[in-house]
Amino acid sequence: MCGIIGVTSHQNITHHVLSCLENLEYRGYDSAGIASVHNQKWNLRKTVGKLLNLKNLINTQPLSGTTAVGHTRWATHGPITQENAHPHIAPSVAVVHNGIIENYDKLASQYQLPAHIENDTAILTLLLDLWHTKHGLSPKETLIHAFKELEGSYAFVALFLSEPSALYAARQGSPLVIGQGTEHHHHYVGSDALCMASYTQNIVYIEDRQWAHIQPHDFSIFDDLGNRLELPLVKHHIPAHQVSKGHYKHFMEKEIAEQPLVLHKTLAPFLPEDTSAPPLIPSLASINWLKIPRILITGCGSAYHAALTAQYWFETLAQIPCQVELASEYRYRDSPASPNDLVIAISQSGETKDTLEALKKAQNNKLRTLGLVNVPSSSLARIADHTVLTEAGPEIGVASTKAFSSQLAALLLIACVAGNQRNTFPQHNITSLRNALESLPALASSVINDIPYLPIAEILHSMRTILYIGRNFCYPIALEAALKMKEISYIHAEGYASGELKHGPIALVDKLTSVIAVAPPSHLSEKNLFVKTMSNLHSSTARGCTGIIISDKNGVKDAQEQNPQLLSITMPSGIHTALIPILYTLPIQLLAYHTALLKGTDIDQPRNLAKSVTVE
C-alpha cells in the first residue's frame, strides 16, 4: 500500500529513485510519479498504471535533480487518475504521502481551500504551502505545526523549493525509515528498508510523532515539539537475490518454491539437538503457560486464517481455551478479558494498521502480548512484549505464500512449547511430533515438486465459482484456499466448513461451479470427518458441479470408488496430524497460481490489492 521514497545527494539521483520505486512495487499500486527540483523549477513526471509507464515517460522526457521524491499510489481518496497520482505539487512544496489525513475536509474548510479538491494528499500539500509561504513558517516550523493540525495515520515526505537539497519527513502511525548512503554522500527516506536495500544497509526507524531533516551529508530527527532526538542506527540484511525473481516467471512462483527452505529456517532454531527434547523458544521463556487462562489471537487476511488454524493446536496440544478475532473488529468490540490472558498478534510486515491497533488495545487493557512477525525491525516487533520471528525473508508477491506457511509452523511450535510446559501430551507424542517437524521441509518439497497441478488448473480457470470445504483444522485452510484463488485469478471463490455447505452455499452449485474438498484421512475416527466431508462433496457433484478432492492415496481411492467422476490431488500418506494444515496449504497455493497463470492475470500485483495495509 502506497510506497514512499526520497533521495538527496550531490549528483543526479533520479535513476536511484526509479530503482527504489521498483522495490516498492510489491506493496500494490495503481499509479506512480517522481518530482525533483532543477534550476529552481519543479520537474514532475507521473503516470497511471505500472511503473513501466513512468519509465517510458522519463525515457522520452528525462528528469534531472539532486534531490527527489517518488511514490507508488494505492488509491484511497479520489479515483485512479494522473492528477491524483503523487507527488502533489504546490508553488513552494512537493509532497508524497502514505496513509489517510482523516480531518482533511475540515482543514480544507477551515483554511478556505478550493472546494473541488477531495484528495487528502492534495489538501496536505496546499496546507504545507500555505503555512510555509503565507504564514511565514520555516520548513521545520511547518512540520511541527502539521503535527498540531493533522489527524489520522500518515507518513509524508516534503521537498521545499526554498531548500532544494533537503527532505523533510514526518510520521504518525505509518512506517517511515531513513537510509544512510555510502560514505554519507547521499541519504534516503522511504516506507521500508526493502525499497533502499540495493543502496544501503544502515537505517534508522522514525517513530510516531517524529520528523526528520535529511540532507546529502547527514540527517537529524526531532519530536513533535522540535526537540532533537538520537535514534539508533541499525543494520538490515536483505540479500539482493531475495528481491529478485531469478529464473522464475513470478515472485509468487519463487516464493512457493522457497517454502521448504523457509520452513527449515523457521523451525531449526527452536529444535534442540536432542531429538527427544521438545521445541524451545527462548523469547518466550518468561511466559508461564500454566497461568494463562485464555489465548486471544488476532490478524487480518491470511494471518487471520493462520490464527484460526492455531486455535485447534492450542486447544488440542496445550488445552488452553483460544479465541480468534479479526483485528479490524477486535479493536471495536468491548470483549471481556482476564488479566492473565495472552494476546497473539500476527502480521507478515509488522506494519498492518488494524493489527497494530488491536495490539495497542490489548496493551491498554494491561494484557500480555506476543507478536508473530516476519520483519524483526517492524513496529509490531518493537511494540509487542514478546516476539517470535518467522524466517520467510522478503515476500514480494501480494498473495501471501511462504509467510503464511512459516506463520503456521511458528504457531505450531508455540503450541508445542505451551503444551510441554502444561504437560498436556505424553513424551512419546512429543518425540513423534518432533520427528515430524524435522521431516516437514522434505515433505513440503515433495508436495510442491512431485504433484501435477496444471491438469486441475485447466479445469478451474473456466469456472464461475469455486467453493472450498474442509472440517476441523482444514476449515481455515479452505478459507485460505478461497482467498488465494480470488486474489490472483479473480474467480469468485469461497471457503466453508464442510457441514455448512447444505445450509446455504449449495444454492450456488451448478455446472460452472467447482467444489474442492480439503479432506485428509480422518484423525478422529470416532467422528469420521473424512466420510462426512465426502458426503458433502457428493451432494454437490449430484447437482452438476465439478468435484475435486485433496487427500492421500487411500482417501482418493475411497472417494473415487463412490464417485468415479471426482478429480483429485494426491498428497503423501502418513502425514502427522499436526502438520496437515501446513502441508495441505501448499496445493491450494499452486492451484491458485496455475489457474491465474492460465487466465493471464497480474499474479504478483493483483488489482486493487496492497501487500502492506497501513490504513484502516
Report on this model:
The chain is an alpha/beta fold and 616 residues long. Helix content is 35%, strand content 22%. The chain contains 18 helices and 25 strands. α7 (259-267) runs parallel beside α12. The mean pLDDT is 91.
In brief:
With 616 residues, the protein is of the alpha/beta class. It has 18 helices and 25 strands.
| Secondary structure tally: strands | 25
Shape: globular
Query: Roughly how much helix do the residues carry, as a percent range?
Result: 25-40%
Q: Terminal Cα separation, in Å?
A: 12 Å
Mean pLDDT: 91
Backbone structural class: alpha/beta
What topology does this entry show?
Blueprint: E1 3-8, H1 14-24, E2 31-38, E3 41-48, H2 51-60, E4 67-73, E5 88-89, E6 93-101, H3 104-110, H4 120-133, H5 139-149, E7 152-160, E8 167-172, E9 177-180, E10 187-190, E11 202-205, E12 210-214, E13 219-223, E14 228-229, E15 234-235, H6 251-257, H7 259-267, E16 295-299, H8 302-317, E17 322-326, H9 327-330, E18 342-347, H10 353-364, E19 368-373, H11 379-383, E20 386-389, H12 402-422, H13 427-449, H14 454-460, E21 465-470, H15 475-489, E22 492-497, E23 513-518, H16 529-541, E24 546-552, H17 553-562, E25 567-571, H18 580-599
Parallel strand pairs: 16-17, 16-18, 18-19, 19-20, 21-22, 21-23, 23-24, 24-25
Antiparallel strand pairs: 1-4, 1-10, 2-3, 2-4, 5-6, 6-7, 7-8, 8-12, 9-10, 9-11, 11-15, 12-13, 13-14
Helix pairs in contact: 3-4, 7-12, 7-13, 8-12, 8-15, 13-18, 14-18, 15-18
